[in-house]
């Protein structure tokens, strides 16, 4: 199986705060990989470092066998790696359609209409709301928009940071169903999620983080049955 992403010994800081320590893992084509851990464990830092929003002091990050450690976010998106950040970060003063168009800026204009049709098929609510200002959408609709905007870049690997945060249980189930559909359609997923139960249930493999370090790894099933993980993250 093709190794899409390889993270090797990265160390990232916020100022003097050590946020990600000696992080090493890989993501193979077609997988759903999840990173779980408490708030402040370093999950979001790892995604930001992969997508070029932060840079590691050490090690390397390779995507499709190319070192992207020093690339800027624009270059990384063009290569096929998209990042849906925590908190959605939609352009509030722009319409739904305009937000989606912004997501396709790395793609040839001739395929934008097809990409837009694909997103509207996946997220019918966005088609209904295409002229509405993004800032007036509900939390669930904004999450769909953030995911749809990332899909406009035609990613090979999609990184999702806390997609279920703040959503009602029914919407959480819908978002996870969409994640599985995207994966089934050929998109590899790297998922950061506090809902460990649901994340591990759909994951091929997972990594458990604590204070910036990976402390456990295994298949989704193995981690669901791991006593440490049960006690710390699954309420068992």
Which features does this protein show?
236 residues, Rossmann fold, 4-stranded antiparallel β-sheet
Briefly characterize the structure.
With about 240 residues, this protein is α/β, with parallel strands linked by helices.
Describe the structure.
The protein has 10 helices and 10 strands. It is an alpha/beta fold and 236 residues long. The chain has a domain at 1-80 and 155-164 and 187-236: P-loop containing nucleotide triphosphate hydrolases (Rossmann fold). The strands form 2 sheets. Strands 6-7-8-3-9-10 form a 6-stranded mixed sheet, with helices on both faces. Strands 2-1-4-5 form a 4-stranded antiparallel sheet, with helices on one face. It is globular, with a radius of gyration of 17 Å. The model has no long low-confidence stretch (mean pLDDT 91).
